[in-house]
Design goal:
Mean pLDDT: 97
Shape: globular
Family: Belongs to the ATPase epsilon chain family.
Strand content: over 45%
Membrane topology: Peripheral membrane protein
Number of helices: 0
Keywords: ATP synthesis, CF(1), Ion transport, Membrane, Transport
Protein name: F0F1 ATP synthase subunit epsilon
Pfam family, one: ATP-synt_DE_N
Radius of gyration: 11 Å
């Protein structure tokens, strides 16, 4: 079962879909998420969010000023500023 990921900025949804791996930068360092990860609530640091879709495609976004929340297999990343790079 894949992760259900939602990356949103203050004014729009940047990306949502299913992923096998998500790596994000928090104020305490980088953290990776896969299916079955324990619940987490963390503060985002400025940096990249790297998403590997279930197809293997890579999505990269810049994000800053926000938080991320992992509950079950749902990962929500809320950033004040976020934009896709590729």
């Amino acid at each position: 079962m894949p992760l259900k990921v939602s990356l949103v900025s203050a004014d729009a949804e940047v990306w949502s879909g299913e992923a096998s791996l998500v790596v994000a930068k928090t104020v305490e360092g980088e953290i990776g998420f896969m299916t079955g990860h324990e619940p987490v609530l963390a503060i985002l640091a400025e940096g990249q969010v790297r998403i590997t879709e279930t197809s293997g495609s890579k999505i990269i976004a810049n994000a800053q000023d926000g938080f991320l929340s992992m509950e079950g297999d749902d990962l929500t990343i809320v950033a004040g500023n976020a934009a896709l790079i590729s």
